[in-house]
Every structure is written in C-alpha cells, then in structure tokens.
Design brief:
Layout (H helix, E strand, L loop, with lengths): L3 E3 L16 E5 L4 H9 L3 E2 L8 E3 L4 E5 L7 H6 L4 E4 L3 H10 L12 H12 L3 E8 L2 E11 L2 E9 L4 H16 L3 E5 L3 H5 L3 E3 L1 H10 L14
Parallel strand pairs: 1-2, 9-10
Antiparallel strand pairs: 2-4, 3-4, 5-10, 5-11, 6-7, 7-8, 8-9
C-alpha cells in the first residue's frame, strides 16, 4: 500500500489502509481543521526535520485505561515534592519536550512548526498541558490533545526524577473526574507500559475511538484541590 499524498483536501484515507509500518498519508499541512480531523480518526503527525509531514495510525496502538494507571508507593511519595498546574506554561512544556534528550533517538520530531500549530490548538481549548513545579520552576510535564472523551498524549519531559510521571498521575486522576474515557498513548513504549498502558490492535482502537463521545467536554482545565 502506497500512502496517499495529501493536498488541499482535509479528508484522510481510512486507517486500515495504512502501510505495514502504520503510515496513512503524507504531505498536507498542520492547519487546525486538518489536525482535528486527523485525531478524530485516530491519526496523528510524526516526522523528522526536513521530511514531509507523515500521518500515522500504528498497529498495535497503546492506550491507558484511566483505572489502570499504576500508582506505586514510591511515586505516590514523589508526587508530594511537586506543585501542579494545567495550561499555565503550554509553549514551555512543548519546548522542553523538544529539547530533552531521549535514549536511542537522534534529534526530535517536535519541529518549530509543530509547536506553532499545537499552540493554536491550545488557544482553541483543544491542546492542553499539565506541569510539575519545584520552587516555582517548571521541572516536568506533558502535553496532548483532547478530542471528545479521549486525551491524546503527545510528549512528556522531566528535569528531575519523577516530575513527568507525577504529572501523568495527576492528569489521569483529573481525567476520571472530568468524565474522559481513556488516554491514547499512540506508540507502544516500555515506560508507559510500566505505568499501566496496554497494547490493542488498530481495529479495537478504532472501535473504542468511535464509541467515545466526540463532542467537546466543556470545562476549564484547573487543578482540583
């Protein structure tokens, strides 16, 4: 299967038409309407610098059931070290995710144009961040996209131990309270699996995606004390 070249149209091929590697299409742009349409269909952009935009629907898919998050005793203790905020420092969270060095990765997929595009989604109330602070300094967090009852986690960073995992724990607690269904973790990683995420096949993921409420959950993301 050869991935479709996107031009001006906003429609995507069906995710089941993806290549064996999970590529659905390439090209197009990162305008808000296209990004929202992609996430509504279980598709997301992921590409390297100087490459065209590549749109993915991996198989298997990694998701986090909100009740499955593994809050260990050590993490529960670490969570007390931080203060948390939602949506207070979205761009800095993205820039930290862009700059953090990751094992077995050269460079970053978070291009400046990605930061610009997701900042627009943030201004629209669709992209969100959860941040961990120590002494008033941003030391960890993550960001992602909320589509109806699904939160699509994009990237996380930690400048001190457990800063991102603690933010993730706070996020799952709040998503449950707010009525979300699950977190789309996208590509399987051992780190997220260790926190309770599980792999499912693409067909099961799409069934799950289409079963959640796709209407925007109207609320302001604020910390519940």
């Amino acid at each position: 299967m050869i991935p479709k070249l996107l031009k001006h149209e906003l429609t995507f091929p069906h995710p089941n038409d993806a290549t064996e590697d999970g590529i659905v299409a390439w090209g197009g742009d990162l305008n808000p309407s296209r990004l929202i349409r992609a996430y509504q269909n279980g598709i997301f952009p992921w590409y390297s610098k100087n490459d065209p935009i590549i749109w993915w629907s991996p198989n298997p898919r990694l998701i986090m059931e909100l009740d499955d998050f593994k809050l260990s005793r050590s993490l529960k203790k670490s969570m007390k070290k931080f203060e948390y905020k939602f949506d207070s420092n979205f761009i800095d969270v993205m820039k930290n995710c862009q700059n953090v060095k990751r094992e077995n990765q050269d460079g970053t997929w978070i291009q400046d144009e990605i930061i610009e595009a997701y900042s627009v989604l943030h201004d629209m109330g669709i992209a969100h961040s959860i941040e961990s602070y120590q002494g008033g300094e941003l030391v960890g967090g993550l960001y992602g996209v909320a589509i109806g009852g699904m939160f699509c986690g994009e990237s996380m960073f930690a400048l001190v131990n457990d800063a991102s995992k603690s933010a993730y724990a706070v996020l799952t607690q709040h998503l449950k309270i707010w009525g979300y269904d699950f977190i789309d973790c996208q590509v399987p990683t051992q780190h997220l699996k260790s926190l309770g995420a599980k792999e499912i096949n693409r067909e099961s993921f799409l069934e799950r995606l289409h079963s959640v409420n796709m209407n925007k959950i109207e609320h302001k993301w604020e910390l519940i004390v």
